[in-house]
Amino acid sequence: MTDMKRRDFLKAGAAAVVVTSTCLCGLNGCSTFTKIGHTQEIKPEAITRKGNMLLVDLSREPLLGQVGGAGKIKNDLVPQGIIIAHTEQNIYQIASLLCTHRGVEVDYDHKKKRFECASLGSSAFTLNGGNIKGPAKKPLQKYEASVSGNILAIRI
Ligand code: FES
Asked: How far is the CA of 120 from the centre of ligand 1 (A)?
């Protein structure tokens, strides 16, 4: 292999490594690339499905029990994924997990009281799922919920 060919080979290899391990922003694990947000998953043992109701045992998820806490569910029980935000004392807002732009997960921003896409596109949604800003044109789906004791019941 000549020097020129070896240099070209190394450049191509380096470019391939960059493309496969980082986003355009240059950060490994960037949500735009992985499509995964920062919200913690709710433990499977805290979730029960009964028909079209999803029951979340809040006593098993202390973070969700605190105002400002949030959690996500994306598993066989809820393949489309939902995000749960504890916005005010005993008031929970639930929406679909995936941004309607390109399917990156949304997170809950308690200071701004809204859902925000974890990607660089940064679409933002009201607690009712409506679009506020960003490239997403469709709203998130909103889910009805109620709390009884330690059980959060979500109609899905
Ligand atoms: S995927 Fe959410 S703004 Fe692009």
From this structure: 7
